[in-house]
Amino acid sequence: MTLLLAICVAVIFGVSIYLMLSRELKAVAMGVFLFSHAAHMSILSMSRSPIIATGIKTPPILVGHGEQLANRPPVDPLPQALILTSIVISFAVMAFLLTLLVLTQRRAGTLEVDLLAKEQLP
Fold first, then answer.
1. Which residues pair with 67 in a beta bridge?
2. Can you give the pLDDT at residue 14?
3. Rounded to whole angstroms, how far apart are CA atoms 90 and 71?
4. Which phi and psi (to 5°) does residue 38 adopt?
5. pLDDT tens digits, residue range 54-66?
6. Would you tell me how many other CB atoms lie within 10 Å of the CB of residue 1?
């Protein structure tokens, strides 16, 4: 399972880098979006699941006054907090990039990088 997730992360990283090297700004924006999704998946793959590690199929919870159930390790909340923070930041970046794309399309009439480089600035 870990190998499959690592392969998926590598493929998504590769596709996102390919898109970011494109000549059209729409593809560059999609590459940035995919890059953030690949980063989320890589953080998720680095945090091991305590359910899979112990082989027990019930969720690791605390009972009573903090005792653990059946020698299960507690869930590490740090990767989940990092991913949640990263999702919020990537959503803001997506909204900003899409706004820039719309304004660039309206003002210049194109999203091709070569044509935008020849455009005269006001």
1. 63
2. 96
3. 37
4. -65, -35
5. 555 555 555 556 5
6. 8
| Per-residue pLDDT tens digits for 45-55 | 777 665 555 55
What is the b/e burial string over 22-40, where b = at least 16 CB atoms within 10 angstroms of the residue's CB?
eebbebbbbbbbbbbbbbb
CATH dotted code for 2-50+77-118:
1.10.287.3510
Residue corresponding to tokens 């998504």: 12
Environment class of 61 (CB within 10 Å of its CB; exposed 0-12, middle 13-18, buried 19+): exposed
CB–CB of 75/54 below 8 Å? no
Say which amino acid occupies 61. Answer: I
Which pTM does this prediction carry? 0.72
Q: Which residues of the chain have pLDDT under 70?
A: 1, 48-76, 121-122
> What is the rounded distance in angstroms from the CA atom of residue 105 to the CA atom of residue 63?
57
Q: In this structure, what token pair is assigned to residue 111?
A: 């999203």
* Tally of CB atoms within 10 A around 117: 7
**Where do the structural domains in the chain lie, given as residue ranges?**
2-50+77-118
CA distance 51 to 83: 19
